[in-house]
Design a protein that fits this description.
Distance between the termini: 76 Å
Helix content: 40-55%
Strand content: 15-25%
Shape: elongated
Radius of gyration: 37 Å
Structural class: alpha/beta
Number of strands: 22
């Protein structure tokens, strides 16, 4: 029930009005202006009926109070007056009253007038409320539109960057087609840039998923080393071209193999690094560190990623502190995506600002270990190693990994100390087996550095260059230790030195699946051709189907064991991958209906339909050889 406030010093008038209106309204009566203001400060009223000749504060002073607080916009004020108060009534209308009533309130229409006036102002209140709401919605929509426009402007630049890299690497590979090392490095960068381009496109889709609360995390077997290597392949060439030094170091990583969403972790790190470049002033170097920290949950490992850089502008840190309901207010939508990704992975993102404008961005993620993965063994009879690197963090990190393997290790951060140590060990007949050497430490060319250290160490000592994918140093050393350095890459580098192949290693191991048969179901012929090449590399025979219906017919007419795995595209015309898989499961044929099905799609999959169809694994497109091999290895190991 609405409340009417009656302010009148005349008790008889107050009681008469109260009796007239009490049936329809809650009535509050006061006898002076100060009491009227006190009531309005504590009670929402629908109407004020007031004699303007009040004590303490008169009606005009009460009106001023109401105007200053915009109360008269939605609360009608009715003046109580007499017939001879014409001048006073005019002053009342000038002050903003809505109506007047005359004592002794004998007019039979007074009650109806008051009720109608209150209804009229109630509609006015609704109109004002809707107007304010619509103005706010319009402002929010305009801000979102502006943010989208800014994002698309930035995105067009971001998309051109990997496209230029792809074109440039393709041309470089074509011009050096006979140099397999250069071609390999070009292909590595081209592949990484293509992945980054796909991630940028996915960013646009992710914003929609965030708004609809549909962004998901899909766990799979993966490697921290592989994730960081991909990030480095994308970011390092871009920063090099900009004249910015980029260094990535690892520390204490004992669990490289995890079960997590590698695509999302990669996207998270690239977003932070990419936006740190955008929001910077006079930047000369960026550092990224990866550290494994102790946790009380034995099946999990905690990873801390830190990005350090000078010259962040003032907007950078606050850009992450957005309201999750208005993500588009951020200058760059990748901030919204980044923060949401951290939340989805139950992680944290923090900022530590140091003196001289240096900002440290720290992301911590608690990720499940892949306990089933076995670590490669390092070659025996490696007793002593020298690490030569003027980057103390890098040198000590490599030394720490070697010592964890039980290898005695010396570390030097300058040329003279390193050469002196090599000569002393030789004179003592206990020389080094391997020297890990950063070529740039001497300030000389890579050839001169190699020759100088080779002369001091002797021809029987293996020398591996520590490098960031620079092809100019190929064939100068016995091998190359590719940064960022992880224990698995270090083990493979050591082993490859004695296999005399001099190839870069990143810890990726491919299993031979000779004699296996895989059915590839995809309506796109190019996708089937790419999958066939990937499978052929490891001795797998491919059976092709260009539709879900054709796949069902092939499976129905096969014998148990003819098909080992099905790679099933999810999005196909007429019958999609979910429906095709359900039909295969419903065949109820022993050894056929239960063939493992790996779902593949450029979009995120529908988890409910995935489970309903009894699919076994999900792999994102484009087809990635290592992911396909890892999925097959897991399937075959399960069956064995």
């Amino acid at each position: 029930m609405d409340t009417i406030l009656i302010a009148d010093a005349d008790l008889k008038s107050r009681n008469k009005l109260k009796g007239l209106l009490a049936e329809n309204f809650n009535i509050v009566c006061v006898n002076n202006g100060k009491q009227a203001i006190d009531v309005m400060n504590n009670t929402l009223i629908a109407c004020l009926i007031m004699d303007f000749k009040l004590d303490y504060l008169d009606g005009f002073e009460v009106m001023n109070f109401m105007k200053n607080r915009n109360i008269t916009d939605y609360v009608p004020v009715i003046m109580i007056c007499s017939d001879n108060d014409k001048y006073f009534i005019k002053m009342g209308y000038d002050a903003g009253i809505s109506d007047k009533i005359h004592r002794p309130f004998d007019n039979p229409f007074i009650k109806k007038r008051i009720i109608n006036l209150i209804k009229l102002y109630s509609q006015k209140r609704m109109l004002l409320f809707n107007k304010e709401r619509m103005e706010k919605e319009l402002l929010t929509a305009n801000e979102a539109l502006d943010a989208r426009s800014k994002f698309l402007t930035e995105m067009s630049h971001d998309i051109r960057t990997p496209m230029l890299t792809i074109n440039g690497m393709a041309e470089l590979a074509r011009s050096d087609i006979d140099d397999k090392f250069k071609v390999k490095n070009c292909m590595d960068r081209l592949t990484a840039s293509a992945k980054h381009l796909l991630n940028l496109i996915n960013d646009v889709l992710d914003i929609s998923r965030i708004e609809n609360n549909k962004m998901q995390i899909h766990s799979e077997k993966c490697s921290i080393a592989g994730i960081v290597r991909d990030v480095n392949l994308i970011i390092w060439p871009q920063l090099t071209e900009m004249g910015i030094s980029f260094d990535v170091e690892t520390s204490g990583i004992t669990n490289e193999n995890i079960i997590a969403d590698s695509t999302r972790i990669r996207q998270l790190l690239i977003n932070i690094l990419g936006s740190s470049i955008f929001h910077s002033k006079n930047c000369k170097e960026i550092y990224m560190g990866i550290e494994e920290k102790k946790t009380f949950r034995p099946e999990y490992a905690k990873y801390r990623f830190t990005i350090e850089k000078e010259g962040f502008d003032d907007e950078y840190e606050t850009s992450f502190m957005y309201d999750k309901n208005i993500e588009f207010k951020s200058e760059n939508m990748s901030f919204a995506i980044t923060k949401r990704l951290v939340e989805l992975m139950n992680g944290s993102i923090n900022f530590e600002r140091e003196e001289h404008g240096r900002l440290i961005i720290a992301v911590e993620l608690l990720l499940k270990k892949d306990e089933a993965y076995g670590e490669s063994a390092v070659r025996e009879n490696i007793s002593k190693v020298l690490v030569v690197d003027n980057n103390v963090k890098s040198g000590k990190s490599i030394s720490s990994y070697l010592e964890d393997m039980g290898i005695m290790t010396d570390y030097c951060d300058n040329e003279n100390e390193a050469l002196a140590s090599i000569r002393n060990k030789r004179n003592e007949n206990c020389g080094y087996d391997i020297i890990f050497l950063k070529p740039a430490i001497t300030g000389k060319s890579a050839e001169e550095t190699a020759a100088e250290f080779r002369k001091a160490a002797g021809s029987d000592v293996k020398i591996a260059g520590i490098s960031y994918y620079d092809t100019s140093e190929e064939n100068i050393y016995d091998g190359k230790l590719v940064k960022p350095v992880f224990k698995s890459g270090l083990i493979n580098c050591i082993n490859s030195l004695y296999e005399n192949d001099g190839k870069e290693t990143d810890g990726t191991i491919r299993t031979d699946f000779e004699g296996k048969n895989i059915l590839v179901v995809d309506d796109n012929a190019v996708n089937r051709m790419i999958a066939g090449d990937i499978l052929e590399d490891v001795g797998i025979s491919m059976i092709e189907a260009e539709s879900g219906r054709q796949a069902i017919d092939i499976v129905k007419n096969s014998r148990a064991g003819d098909i080992n795995i099905i790679l099933m595209d999810i999005q196909m015309p007429l019958m999609d991958g979910y429906e095709a898989t359900k039909h295969i499961r419903n065949l109820k044929l022993k050894g056929i209906s239960d063939i493992p099905v790996v779902a593949m799609s450029a979009e995120t999959y529908d988890s409910a339909r995935f489970i309903e169809a009894e699919m076994n694994y999900y792999l994102p497109k484009p087809a990635d050889p290592d992911r396909i091999y890892a999925a097959m290895e897991q399937i075959f190991n399960r069956d064995n």
